[in-house]
Specification:
2 copies of one chain form a homodimer. Chain A is an all-alpha fold. Helices cover about 75% and strands about 0% of the residues of chain A.
Chain lengths: ~190, ~190
């Protein structure tokens, strides 16, 4: 099922993929207000008609892009090699400092003011949050049957999100490295 | 100097104050794209001309509002009573979950895409960040001459920001309380 595709299906899939990547890039660069279907189609080198064939409405396109961002983030997390906790913490935090986080942040904030976006983004963020937590627990080899461990991991992901936000207007890399090194130590002690 | 004011000066100051508060409320509710000088003036019950007398441009109005937000946040922090570390952590986190944080977040994200806003918001956020850190160190009675203590407090404020972000689309209160209780324990141990 679906393993064999025609050249036409391949082209259609490639176009769709390019539109999603362009939608993420436009969101990160221009924000929600500056990201229309026309802008994204131009960025992707696709006609407006073709863009609307794949995504009938602006909400469809950007909800699709959020889904895409979410899947990319989860895949990047799952692809992390088995390594020490300090390295895992650094890698987890890194996921919140690139263009994927920037695009998600734009949508998140837009969804807080746009009734059409809000339920879709809320549902998706809850799903992504659960998945990210699950993967983090695994990578950190955290034993959630012990009291406080679940909240310890949740707090780490909240901190990672806050560090991502601190990196939006300025390059916060140097400060972030020192904070991450210190809290990785505290986390390692807490997880035992 | 300035202790004696005329009724006219008082009225002018009250109008200015109402405009700033309305600007924060509009930002939190409608986002940057939906927050024009006209919308704010209407919300404040002030004529558009009077609004423009106080704030000639849209950037002036919202930069003024960010300043106002920043001063309100610092004042709220400084007004915290002397209390145990767990209570201080909860109070610090609370500052990131109300309409003031929501408004600041809207401006922060808008500034990442608007060249006219960016330098002003960046400078202000750096200033507010330093001030918040200074007050947090004092409230937590943290000894920054000990290695790692500075980064421990910074990480806590990053986590508070991340928890604020998690509260924008949904009411995250119940989860946040558990995370804060656990991390207050870890912080208390780390600060000694």
């Amino acid at each position: 099922m679906g393993a064999v595709t025609t050249p036409k299906q391949d082209r259609s899939r490639a176009t769709r993929q390019r539109l999603l990547e362009s939608a993420v890039a436009c969101l990160a660069e221009h924000g929600w207000a500056g990201s229309t279907v026309t802008v994204v189609a131009e960025h992707a080198g696709v006609s407006r008609g073709a863009a609307q064939h794949h995504f009938p409405t602006r909400e469809d396109l950007f909800t699709g892009a959020v889904e895409y961002v979410a899947e990319e983030r989860s895949a990047a997390l799952r692809a992390l090699p088995v390594q020490g906790r300090t390295a895992v913490v650094a890698a987890l935090v890194d996921l919140y400092t690139g263009p994927l986080f920037r695009a998600a942040l734009q949508l998140w904030v837009a969804a807080s003011n746009e009734a059409q976006l809000r339920p879709r983004v809320t549902e998706l963020e809850a799903r992504v949050g659960r998945e990210t937590h699950r993967i983090a627990v695994e990578l950190l080899r955290a034993d959630e049957t012990r009291p406080g461990v679940r909240e310890t991991v949740q707090g780490l992901l909240d901190m990672a999100r806050g560090l991502g936000l601190a990196n939006v207007l300025t390059d916060d890399t140097a400060r972030r490295r020192r904070v991450v090194a210190q809290w990785a130590r505290l986390l390692d002690e807490a997880l035992g």
